[in-house]
Amino acid sequence: MVEVEGLRKHYGPVRAVDGISFSVGAGEVFGLLGHNGAGKSTTIRMLTGRSRPTGGSARIAGHDVVSEPEEIKPLINLVFEDQNLYERFSGRDNLAFFARLYEAPASRVDELLELVGLTGAAGRKVKTYSTGMKQRLLIARALINRPRILFLDEPTRGLDPTSARELRNLIADLSRRGTTVLLTTHYMEEADELCDRVAFLSAGRIVALDTPRELKLKRGERAATVILRSREEKTIRLDDPADATRLQGWMVKGDIVAIHSREGTLEDVFVELAGRPL
Ligand SMILES: Nc1ncnc2c1ncn2[C@@H]1O[C@H](COP(=O)(O)OP(=O)(O)OP(=O)(O)O)[C@@H](O)[C@H]1O
């Protein structure tokens, strides 16, 4: 659905995006991760036709982002932090306005309100909505044209943990129904939970690209922490036969309360690979 090859965006001497390549398959949730200024938003801006690349190429469902923007428009939609809702209108009226704009049937409005869990609040003015409700309404608005690819820039920024979880569930649900999702986030746990694959961006370049699981396994320790009934903590190495015997001994005696893997977190991997911003 998305094919990016050597994509660049330079602002004078600033190499915001400096030759990145990746592809995203249908129904995949793909995360762009990186420090402030790493080039995430610039990448999404180029892919959605909001910014012209300095070089390289990008294709959406086979169409070139520079020469075929009209073919791409009906296939995509986006949620960006600088987007606004009509605060003095109700949630339903906000969606109805966009439904008319996209020539979508009026029934789509109620369908989307239901999907994002806003049916009960549909008649209320948006200015009375919480940040989480506004964000869900923005996503509903971005789904009006049934996009095959949804671009989300920091979708859970500023949301409390419960609202963020609800939004992640919604994104996962959309992906299960076949929508391809390309998102940016600063939250490593979120990327780990939600993304099929992630790319770490640092100073405009991709420094790692893989599934969260592979990234963690490649970097993590082959070890586990065992907590015994006595509340003692023991570290065992998974490649040490002597530790395997110790583990077996504790198990036979029923001494083990819990075992925690020492696999690295996505954040560990990120800090190791992307370090600090330049
Ligand atoms: N219009 C512009 N003019 C000049 N420099 C720009 C412009 N837009 C972005 N940049 C620079 O390009 C680099 C990448 O910015 P970008 O917004 O893509 O980063 P980001 O990874 O999305 O960061 P954040 O997490 O803060 O949103 C930064 O150094 C930024 O200052």
Q: Could you say which overall geometry the principal axes of the C-alpha atoms support?
A: globular
Number of strands: 13
Distance between the termini: 32 Å
CATH superfamily of the largest domain: P-loop containing nucleotide triphosphate hydrolases
- Enumerate the spans where pLDDT stays under 50 for 5 or more consecutive residues: none
Rg:
22 Å
Oligomer: single chain
Please state the second-level CATH architecture of the largest domain: 3-Layer(aba) Sandwich
Order of helices and strands: EEEHEEHEHHHEHEHEEHEEHEH
CATH class designation of the largest domain? Alpha Beta
Which class best fits the helix and strand makeup?
Answer: alpha/beta
Ligands bound, unique: adenosine-5'-triphosphate
Number of folding domains?
3
Strand order of the largest sheet: 6-7-8-3-9-10
What level of helicity do the residues show?
A: 25-40%
Beta-strand content bin: 25-35%
**Mean of pLDDT:** 91
CATH topology of the largest domain: Rossmann fold
GO molecular function: ATP binding; ATP hydrolysis activity
Domain ABC transporter: 2-228
Membrane topology: Peripheral membrane protein
Protein name: ABC transporter ATP-binding protein
Summarize the model shown:
With 278 residues, the chain is of the alpha/beta class. It has 3 domains: 2-75 and 147-217, P-loop containing nucleotide triphosphate hydrolases (Rossmann fold), CATH 3.40.50; 85-141; 221-262, no CATH class.
